[in-house]
Specification:
alpha/beta; globular; TIM Barrel; eight-stranded parallel β-sheet; 327 residues
């Protein structure tokens, strides 16, 4: 099966494989970005909340200065954090990301979560993260009553102002997608969601396809991103499944490569995270082999509806606030 190296996102073409920059240490970020670009990456997935956008920007500037790439050849995504959902804060948050990244426009700007939190000023703490006041007697997450349509209207204004080219959302469920599509003046071009063989999200992908909405799968390898956070254990590894190992052996590829190829053959973009040079190349080398239809079905049968990134769990455990968005 032939898979394109890019996917349609609104009026633009986005490279189907990007480098996810979540949990890349700040002191390694610039070097990792330069190495990724020199390896062939043209898609960088950033967010204010990752805390490393200034270093991403440094890496981009170094790559540009070295002649490795031109700005127009890069696709740079960033995300609006939860504390900036009120209409009066959205543009300032976008401009802060642009300043940190050293760019005058973003290719894609996403609402990071359908979760509005009370505003935290840049001068108080940036990025604000989840807890409203870490110095409080009982530090906790503090939700704010901001309707999602208010935030989206401000996102639309960013397109009109020329600050971003495409806009979209992360972590939306089917009901929220329906509502957004019914009310948006500028429809979202991208839905970014957790998806891997343990969380196949078939209904959500089918819905997105029906709306002509592109999908990016984050955490496409499942548990790997969550082991160090205590949000998964070794028994949660997709890479250890017999059907995955069998496909990898047949193709002479790594287990990670065949899982990433599965995601591409489903029609989703992927943003695997790594700072290891050998993995950067491996994660890009996905276009010269294919899984069979049977292997695609067998991978899909691994679905456990196992969500690793679930606010209902981590907000309750870590931020003293029960805040489900999927149930």
């Amino acid at each position: 099966m032939t898979v394109s190296t890019s996917i349609q996102v609104g009026a633009s073409q986005m490279p189907a494989i990007g480098l996810g920059l979540w949990k890349i240490a700040r002191d390694m970020t610039a070097e990792t970005v330069v190495k990724a670009i020199s390896t062939g990456y043209r898609h960088l997935d950033c967010a204010a909340d990752y805390g490393n956008e200034p270093e991403v920007g440094l890496g981009i500037r170094q790559a540009l200065a070295q002649g490795l790439v031109r700005r127009e050849e890069l696709w740079v995504t960033s995300k609006l954090w939860n504390t900036f959902h009120r209409r009066e804060h959205v543009r300032a948050a976008c401009e802060r990301s642009l300043s940190d990244l050293g760019l005058n426009y973003l290719d894609l700007y996403l609402v990071h979560f359908p979760i509005a939190l009370k505003y935290v000023d840049f001068a108080t703490r940036y990025p604000p993260e989840w807890i409203h006041d870490p110095t409080a007697k009982h530090p906790r997450m503090e939700p704010d009553a901001v309707p999602l349509h208010e935030t989206w209207a401000a996102m639309e204004d960013l397109v009109t102002a020329g600050l971003v080219r495409e806009i979209g959302v992360c972590n939306y469920n089917t009901g929220l997608v329906h509502d957004l599509m019914a009310t948006a003046r500028i429809r979202p071009a991208m839905l970014q969601i957790e998806a891997h063989p343990f969380l196949t999200q078939e209904r959500l992908l089918r819905l997105a396809q029906g709306y002509g909405l592109a999908v990016t799968a984050f955490s496409p390898l499942g548990a790997l991103s969550y082991l160090e956070l205590g949000m998964a254990d070794v028994n949660d590894s997709v890479l250890e499944q017999p059907v995955v190992k069998a496909a990898a052996a047949r193709l002479g590829r790594s287990a990670a490569q065949v899982v990433l190829r599965w995601a591409l053959q489903r029609g989703t973009a992927i943003i695997p995270k790594t700072s290891r040079p050998e993995r950067l190349g491996e994660n890009l080398a996905l276009f010269d082999f294919s899984l069979t239809e049977e292997e695609m079905r067998d991978f899909g049968k691994l679905n456990r509806n196992r969500r690793f990134n679930d606010p209902a769990v981590f907000c309750d455990q870590a931020f003293d606030c029960f805040y489900p968005i999927y149930d």
